[in-house]
Amino acid sequence: MKVPFADLSRQYKAYKADFDRITSEVFEKGSFIFGENCTAFEKEFSEYTGTGYGIGVGSGTEALHISLLACGIKNGDEVITIANTAVPTVSAIDFAGAVPVFVDIDDSFNINPDLIEEKITDKTRVIMPVHLFGNPCNMELICSVAKKHGLKIIEDCAQAHGAEFNGRKTGSFGDAGCFSFYPSKNLGANGDGGMILTSDEEIAKKAKLLRYYGFKDRYNSIIRGFNSRLDEIQAALLRFKLSKLEIWTRRRIHIAEKYLEGLAGLPLRLPLISPASRHVFHLFVIQLENQDVRNRLIKYLSEKEITTLIHYPVAIHLQPAYKYLGYKEGSLPVTENAVATIMSLPIFPEMEEAEQEYVIENIRSFFNYS
Fold first, then answer.
1. What residue spans define the domains of the chain?
2. Which CATH architecture has domain 245-366?
3. Which residue of 3, 53, 184, 194 has the fewest C-beta atoms within 10 A of its own C-beta?
4. At residue 370, does pLDDT exceed 90?
């Protein structure tokens, strides 16, 4: 049996008639930028998340970049985040002229709230927690630190559509919440897309200016801006997909529960789930004893035609592009151990039970736990 890491074509086949109808309607109306679907989706997604304003942009990276600027970030300001995230988190900080400051993680693979304060300086302006793999950060502790030091919070929710902490959705805790609609996300477009959510009217107003050349009126820029737009076709498809998100999320959680049951007792670490959190399992990440075991398991599963991935194989502070920040090997020991020992198993709503059983069977076989 061949098991893909994900298969987006299955979603299209399941909803082909709906997708074809939706795209045809957009083409027939002939409005492709800032149309009625974009406006409606901004409202619907902000209401879904419990925030006051939604600003559609071209990608999750651009959502972070524009949010930083809308929150007043200037050259040389510092933004606290993690180094085991995807590079775009840090690219956005870099684009804004700010300096990323990395904090080590805890056993959830998210930022360790207890280590944030020691990294705060007189240049710190923002904490950027990343709800990695769909698992919410401890926003109670993070918000407490931010309030104490007068810092903004910009949430990176690229992998956490619909995730919750203490019954409240990610993206609603900070001054801004930033989402990606990259096709493989839990709520994914059929191309690129992103959104900024905020309940701060001034941040919303500035973000809207920044995404469209700083135009107050057409061809009249009142601030220096960019070109970052969520197009009408993607917005129309995302409106439909938002109506299915809860179904897909429950399916992901069901698959995760089957993994937790089927892999229990093996010499590996399964995802930690706080009772306060709703983990939406964008990824199902396991941690092995060491890098050698991890690599051997990946190779073993590949030979069985099971695709796995590593999210992410090199911590950002050790990548060539970010050497200028001055971090060395050993600077973030928990992060560095995690990237050397984790791997992601296949998980997507359309995954068949037989496929998952085959994955579990072969992992157990690798450890001789048949």
1. 8-103+110-242, 245-366
2. Alpha-Beta Complex (3.90)
3. 184
4. no
